[in-house]
Amino acid sequence: MAAPINTKDVIKAIDLFRGWPNPALLPVTSLANSSATVYSSPAIYTPGLLYGPDDGHPPLRQHLARWLTSFYRPRDPVTADRICITGGASQNLACVLQVFADPGYTRNVWMVAPGYHLACRIFDDAGFAGRLRAVPEDEEGLNVGFFRGALEAAEKAWKGDSESQFKSAQPWRKIYKHVIYATPTFSNPSTKTMTLRRREELVRLAREFDALIVTDDVYDLLQWSSDPNGTLAQPDQRCAPRLVDVDRYLDGGPQHEFGNAVSNGSFSKLIGPGLRTGWAEGTPKLAYGVSQAGSTRSGGAPSQMSSTIVAQLFSDGVIESHIEKVLQPAYAERYHIVMSAIREHLLPLGVALPSTTQETAGGYFIWIDLPQPLQANEIVQRAKQEENLTLAPGDLFRVQGDEKAECNKFNRSLRLCFVWEAQDQLAEGIRRLARVVGRAADQAK
């Protein structure tokens, strides 16, 4: 087994942790052209620089309605009144909680585990510290059988009542008993995609227990064939309907005017997080409710100027072209480079990939499991010290505050991001990880 590398001799550090878009793939020229168009036209830049309507820049809402209809192919077209422009997925998650949850009445926030770790602080800030609960995944996504039992137990244990609510009744507000947070397609970090059957089961469960499903649908458009030699028959169409689309058609449609699902969309993974622009989609009543969060009512639509520039990108046909001709092929190539290196260097050491039969891969991440008795935190530390390699340990993605739950332990897992690092360093990063795993396994014998 090769000796550890002295990090002082390493020419370049490799980072497989950071889940940011690759700077070389940002549409800088298109953004510059769109900005020039916007700032050269008083009819466009004047409303862009002023307070926008609560629900956001109308042209962008209209573009989104057309684009989302084209990609997701719902049974009924998406209309602009179902959309509210937001400051991105994270900002909007906070607004959704401000309007539709109340720590005096909402029992718990349920998060798929492993889950997006930075969302936990948002839930804490909304008053749910200590009430985040982990829901495990199985081969089809969120484990609905487990979830039903947990919901029934939570209802039985609940001591509050409707009089415990802190927030006043308002026509744009509905306080749900439960909030469910998930990334159903190419989940961060597990990369799993929830099956259609499981999505329908989850919507029925949400209706039964008065829950709002908040889905981060931020990776859906970044998809490609899981076969390195294959191609997707329809790369410009979704691999599964969103939960918000399922709620529209299932069993006759929403059970009330707010519905039980909201899609949290964002341009952060597509054209740059610094734009701080995203959207929420739900029933017209729910979309209006999001637009009535106090911070939006006071300051006007979030990202008003950025929204104006993004709308111009749609007018120029840039966004669809950038996704299909730049991002999908580039990220597919990166994904397959890493997968090939994992199969060559890590699988022989006992490292495992999650079992899947999915024909479509996508997103930003790959989730792997280390062989016994190796511990992810130790491997991460040694990788940094011995190979100048930065990794994300699985326990980082636990649902915070529910650490005792058996389904919330990922001490033998790692999340690898194949997007941020330079492409020619990806396979080398896996080789370095293999050296660390090999040395640790030898020492554990």
UniProtKB/TrEMBL annotation:
Domain Aminotransferase class I/classII large, first and last residues per copy: 50-418
Pfam families the UniProt entry points to: Aminotran_1_2
Entry's Gene Ontology molecular function annotations: 2-aminoadipate transaminase activity; pyridoxal phosphate binding
Superkingdom field: Eukaryota
InterPro entries reported in the protein's UniProt record: Aminotransferase_I/II_large, PyrdxlP-dep_Trfase, PyrdxlP-dep_Trfase_major, PyrdxlP-dep_Trfase_small
Membrane-spanning parts: none
CDD domains: AAT_like
Name of the protein in question: Aminotransferase class I/classII large domain-containing protein
